[in-house]
Design brief:
By secondary structure, this protein is an alpha+beta fold. The chain has one domain: DD-peptidase/beta-lactamase superfamily (Beta-lactamase). 34% of the residues lie in helices and 20% in strands. The protein is built from nine helices and eleven strands. It has a five-stranded antiparallel β-sheet with strand order 4-3-11-10-9, sandwiched between helices. Strand 1 and strand 2 form a beta hairpin. The longest helix is centred in the N-terminal third of the chain and has 20 residues. It is globular. It starts with a helix and ends in a 9-residue tail after the last helix.
Length: 317
Amino acid sequence: MDDAGRKNSLTLATLLALALLTTPPQAPAKGTNSSGKAKPRPATRALAKDPAADPATPPSQAAGELVLAADGATVIDGLTGEQLYEKNAGGRFYPASSTKILTALLVIEAGDLDRLVTITPEDTKVEPSAIGFKPGEQFTRRELLYALMLKSANDVAQALARDNAGSIPAFAEKMTLRATALGANQSHFANPHGLHHPEHYTTPHDLALIARAAMQQPLFRQIVATVSHPWVTATGVTELRNHNKLLWCPPWKFEGCTGLKTGYTVPAQQVLVSAALRDHREVISVVMHSNKPGIWMDSKALLTYGFSHLAPQPRFD
């Protein structure tokens, strides 16, 4: 190359270098972060943009992570209590009506389940979800437990708590003490039904431990696995229908589901505690501060994940 060619080549290289130095960096493409990697989309948005997707199919799992709508979640081994997956499982959330798991546990542990409970005027004033008591009516503790867990009746929770401890504050104190004894140390309970109270809270991990203890009670297991149950009063018979769609409602029904309990208030948003049993192994999931259909999709994803990550059982042969 002659002197003129070398001069032109150097000039072109210099111009290119100057152009690179003076060109501002481009913003990441839409849907990516500053490193250029794709940002994960919330599960709810992905659903909204894919109308052909099966709404009952759990979100896909990538690199060991689940796409969950819930702000807090966990799944544990029902046998050992080992935590198999968690998302903010130690975060503080309002439990709403999943509170009634602990209420039922305390009532069942107290025994004498065929004892009659007489309804007081105070019991009839608890709303919004209610069985519709009349003062002076009588029901056994066992009957009230079905109304508590299937209908999620707040007036029933009030009647059972009063019958058990004499007052709501006394029962709430028993709830917190029992939770602590189960290892649920980050929880505090102010009432038996889960209506909003700023000092009534738990965590996904704590709630899973409470549910695990409750599922060790045969009557509790029987109740929360019941799809419908007759409610008999002097005026007739009505049906109590379980709110947990994983038990009975396509497309959300989950094979092997054994219960547990839904919950909702505006501050708590959607809450669901679920359990399922396959091949003699049970897993328990908790989703807190979620939405619909998030509670159903999240729970199915967590239960499926739990079964695939259970430690092998020891063999004795």
